[in-house]
Specification:
Elements (H helix, E strand, L loop, with lengths): L1 E7 L5 H17 L4 E3 L24 H18 L2 E8 L8 E7 L5 E6 L20 E4 L2 E7 L6 H9 L4 E5 L5 H14 L2 E7 L9 E3 L5 E4 L7 E6 L8 H22 L1
């Protein structure tokens, strides 16, 4: 399976964001990608960056976002690819939206959505409402979970996914910091699974999108020029270079966590 972690320009213009996402889907599918993931707020934009207070949600064009989601779903069906992208998921009128990832299948249907559970301090000040649960779905024999932005700093989220048997974590962020880069490698290496991280190119100009393998090494990176593009990498659970991580380290660590650490704590 060929993975594509995208870095795309994202703004407050929902229609323009949708056009960029569809173009990137076509470009990545043209190179053989089966799953393409996009950054936090890739479709909706990340309004906290453009406006002073969360009152802006009262004027957000939810109908336009829904129209773009339908167009993206159709593109996934046309190309026969999976896609995960960041957007604002509407709640009841009196409540802030969720900072979410939506996942489309190659039939154009919405497989699931993931709501960011760990909000930043700023996000919690009326911008977003926190999610409650992990999501896991199966894709061509690969078990996938999702995380958003600063959740990379919370090992509990990744250990939970490991207990749920994930092989791959989709991580969507508006930008990556040097610390986030290290944390992505750490979470992948600790739990011996792939982590693909997508960003918004205009907000993460110095640190591009990328994919980390189950041994904690970067396997692919996007360009560091702040332009739209993607990192491409195959996910192959039978690859000999990952035999130790997947066949030895992961089961042994699971055993230790289940037995030894339970006694310690």
């Amino acid at each position: 399976m060929l993975l594509a972690a995208a870095q795309t320009t994202s703004s407050s213009d929902i229609s323009a964001n949708g056009e960029v996402i569809r173009r990137m889907l076509m470009d990545a599918a043209g190179q053989g990608a089966s799953l393409i993931c996009f950054g936090e707020g890739a479709l909706s934009g990340y309004p906290k960056r453009y406006f002073d207070n969360p009152d802006i949600w009262a004027d957000f064009d939810w109908a336009q976002q829904e129209a773009e989601l339908r167009n993206i779903a159709q593109t996934c069906q046309d190309l026969q690819v999976y896609a995960a992208l960041g957007y604002a998921r509407a709640q009841e009128p009196a409540l802030p939206p969720r900072n979410s990832l939506i996942v489309f299948g190659p039939d154009g249907k919405r497989i699931s959505h993931y709501d960011k559970r760990v909000l930043s301090y700023g996000e919690s000040q009326g911008w977003y409402q926190a999610g409650q649960e992990p999501i896991v779905f199966d894709m061509n024999g690969v078990r996938v979970g999702c995380a958003i932005c600063l959740e990379i700093q919370f090992p509990e989220i990744f250990s939970e996914y490991a207990r749920l048997g994930t092989d791959l974590i989709i991580h969507a962020s508006s930008e990556l910091s040097p610390f986030f880069e290290i944390a992505l490698q750490a979470q992948a290496g600790f739990y011996c699974q792939w982590v693909m991280s997508a960003v918004c190119a205009d907000q993460s100009q110095d640190i591009p999108a990328g994919i980390v393998g189950p041994d904690g090494r970067w396997l692919a990176r996007g360009s560091s020029d702040g332009k739209d593009g993607f990192a491409l990498c195959h996910l192959d659970k039978s690859a000999p270079e990952f035999e130790i991580a997947l066949s030895k380290a992961r089961p042994w660590r699971e055993k230790v966590r289940a037995q030894t650490l339970k006694k310690v704590w």
